[in-house]
Amino acid sequence: MEEVSTIEQAVDQVSDKLEAPITGSSEASTKAKNAARPSSKSGTNKAGSASKAGAAKAIPASKKDIASKPSKPAAAPWTFPKTTLEEAIKIARAIEEQNAGNPMKPDMLAKAVGYNSVADWRFLDLLRAANQYGLVTGSGKISPVGLTQIGQDVVAPSAPTARPKALMAAFRSVEDFQKVEDFYNGKKLPEDEFFENNLYREFGIPRERVKSFIETFTSNLNYLHAFRPDRSGTGPVVTTEFRQREPDVSGIDDGGTGRQFLDTCFVMMPFGQWMDAYYREIFVPAIREAGLEPIRADELFSTGSVIEQIWEQISRAKVLLADLTGKNANVFYELGLAHAANKPVVFTTGDLEDVPFDLRHLRVAVYDIRDPAWGEKLRNTLSVYLKAAKADPGKSVPQPFRKQMAVAE
């Protein structure tokens, strides 16, 4: 500190000499001033040095405090898929249809399911879900993505019972789903509030992910429920086993009429005694002969408003069938939604006058109930038309929407 003080004194003396001509102070006063300054300057200097030293020490202490603060913990990994089983099957189907079931490169797979980049977070979530359901192997980062045995049985089953069993196995591949299914086995799920609390407390589902879990879980139940022979019911019931659980529920091997195909055909038609009979005895067999699964609005059990459910089924359907007999307003409204979604539609009617003139150039199956064989003829015609619409959808879409369809592709 003496060395620093001496240097400071020297600087002050030089400064005083420079100031002397300006202030005009006497030599005595200058000497007195110089004599007085060292002690005060030294004191000031010591205080300043101490202050500087304190500041110098304060900086690393501050940095240390910041470093010692606990960092925000990383979010826990998702233990269940973010998407439904039905959505995740798109990955497996793309591999089967686009690459004959052989392992597929990630970039090709991404484009096959509608994404331009393998880095698209939507594709990554879908691929991660397919892995969690046990449908495929491979993260898609470097190695190709291939089908598992479960995935093969879902998209290309070798026996009628293979697909339902594979779907059940895929659902149970998710440990969280398996635990909740076992807990509520055979029981109706509780109301949202109680279900949410149980998921958080009993199964450790993070509170912020509970609603997402419920949405995915119940959607999967409804999807699996469609593949059961007995599809009656008004709410999600955790009876996902395909063997008999109750006296009134048949097993999958008992020749039931559960869902058979992944591709759906949404049927837009009036309801009523005769129309319901036409649907069961003519439309359903024709649709299944075309390799499609028939779905009608009164068979929907998912949550949401009726129009939301109808729009969802229209969007998912491979082909649609519309019976325009009687010019039913609801049917025409749903038809407008189908055209807006660029979906191929096959028409049928008991009177050609019920079909708008602008749509008569499309596939229209006209039936005459006065013909003794009208039912069989209509069934065969619809089967042919539906197969054609499935193979070449553009020809079953009106021209303006067909252009939009081409642009989208």
Defining traits:
409 residues, alpha/beta, Rossmann fold, five-stranded parallel β-sheet, two-stranded antiparallel ribbon, 7 strands, disordered N terminus
In words, what does this structure look like?
The protein is an alpha/beta fold. The protein folds into three domains: 2-68, no CATH class; 85-226, no CATH class; 263-408, Rossmann fold (3-Layer(aba) Sandwich). The protein contains 15 helices and seven strands. The chain has helices at residues 2-23, 27-68, 85-99, 106-112, 121-132, 149-155, 162-172, 175-183, 192-202, 210-226, 273-289, 306-316, 329-340, 374-391, 399-408, and strands spanning 136-137, 146-147, 264-268, 293-296, 319-323, 345-349, 364-366. The strands form two sheets. It has a five-stranded parallel beta sheet with strand order 4-3-5-6-7, sandwiched between helices. Strand 5, helix 13 and strand 6 form a beta-alpha-beta unit. Helix 3 (85-99) crosses helix 5 and helix 6 (149-155) crosses helix 7 (162-172). Residues 1-5, 18-33, 38-47 and 240-256 have low confidence and may be disordered. Residues 1-77 are annotated as: Disordered. Residues 23-32 have a biased composition (Polar residues). Residues 39-61, 68-77 have a biased composition (Low complexity).
